[in-house]
Amino acid sequence: MATNMPKATVAIVGMGWVGGVIAAELTKAGHDVVGFERGKSRSTADYYHVHDELRYANRYELMQDLSKETVTYRNNEKITALPMRTYGSFLLGNGLGGAGVHWNGQYFRFLPYDFQIKSKTVERYGAGKIPEGMTIQDWGITYDELEPYFVKFEQMAGISGDPTTVDHVGKMSQPFPIGPMKQSPAVKLFRDAAAKAGFQAYTMPSANLADNYTNPDGIERAACQYCGYCERFGCEYGAKADPCVTVLPVALNTGKLEIRTFSNVTKIVHDGKKASGVQYIHVPTGEEYFQPADVVILASYVFSNTRLLLLSDLGKKYDPDSGTGVIGKNYCYQVLGAGTTAYFDDKEFSTFMGAGALGATVDEFNGDNFDHSELGFLHGASISLTQTGLRPIANNPTPSGTPSWGKDFKATSIKYANRSLSVGAQGSSLPFRHHYLDLDPTYKDAHGLPLIRMTFDFEDQDKNLVKHLAAQTKKIADQMGATKTETRDAMTTYNITPYQSTHNTGGVLMGDDPATSAVNNYLQMWDADNVFVCGASAFAHNSGYNPTATVGALAYRTAEGVGKYLAKGGSLV
């Protein structure tokens, strides 16, 4: 039997970016918060002088233990799903700060088109442009309504970027608080080549500080050292914005936040209309506890948010056959694979140096910034060149035709170790009726609870997007003066084995209609008004960008909504 704990005002499940932002805002307002994190605690001191590629990048020090809990995967319903036992396609963060610790810091606001994608598509092209089975829908909020919350996140995190926006992205009411990062020779070459190709490139907005910064909460952080150890690593300087060096210290300093690490929440306890709290397991001992709370906030990763609702039988489970229900609907990923690599015989670059968000981006082919009338896909991709730091174990670029072993392989590897640059496209992922998340009927976690199952494959939409965007990357790479360029323009069946992106979205959609969404635009559940479900699980599709900016903005809006709910109760819309 679970041990009852003293009642809390707010219980937050997951202490990454979303949980940290909400905890900081609510505790500053005087509310008592208990935060649950199933992993261990972390601080900057954990990363002092630990540039260990093997430990962090290859052995996944910061990631979830897949032998204890994983996901199962299948391409379609005719296939039996199997567990992901080794890391490949995406990485699942674990511990205080979550994926906010091991991200690269690439920061992009979603486009105005993204939030009204269905209505804007129908308005420009007609309903017939949307393929059969594609389930795009508006988000129940506009870019202009969300824009002030982007500003809040940017001021807190110290986002570095160009002082003015370019033509193809959303308008900003305030500039980024810090100017852009340094421009390396490789990044300058890309920007010059993009201009020659007729495109407008801009410095990638970055959560790696371009200068020393003190945020509105008084948190001081030092500038980026361009060491090249961002993705899959914690930042030893605190220069990369993460929850452990920004929002969590603010919340803890109020004395209103209690963080319980090694605490795995397994159930939301509810009566069908309201939640009374959460049940959790203290992982080291296996003891069960019940935490009563006035408000329950799910702030975990996409898979965990969806799984916890399904395990708790809260909300209407999605049925792909009828298209009804919402929990598990519109799982989306990211469409990668389009790109061109340029190999140089007469130029050498210091590609071993860099930062997670050191780069430049072109957006002419993102969202609906170009005419799709004669194209076999919707949306698009951002095109970028990044210099994130090519570490020696995982990076070994060689042109096609190079032997895979032996003397010639070694010589070519050494030659091009710092003589290749990649122009890549990060494409949107749009939902289809038969792409969804549910509970696996066979496989269970270490506690005996069903694993989450993903059913997903690439569609003609994705393959057509990759082919078209690859041609645009080639136009830029061909202007860079390389000895040779090689373009990747084809994709086949989705394979969970190779790493692609940790940008998973969907499962607990936001919207303005309870029939097609699980939460409103404050991320408050339609079916239980004291439950808020936050993060990329609310995305009705994935854009041609990294999701963190939009996750952060929605977290600030949710914090505001929870404050309103605690003051008056009831539905917020």
Automatic annotation (TrEMBL):
Pfam families recorded: GMC_oxred_C (PF05199), GMC_oxred_N (PF00732)
GO molecular function list: flavin adenine dinucleotide binding; oxidoreductase activity, acting on CH-OH group of donors
Annotated Glucose-methanol-choline oxidoreductase C-terminal domain residues: 437-555
Annotated ranges, domain Glucose-methanol-choline oxidoreductase N-terminal: 142-332
Assigned keywords, A-Z: FAD, Flavoprotein, Oxidoreductase
Family: Belongs to the GMC oxidoreductase family.
Identification of the protein by name: GMC family oxidoreductase
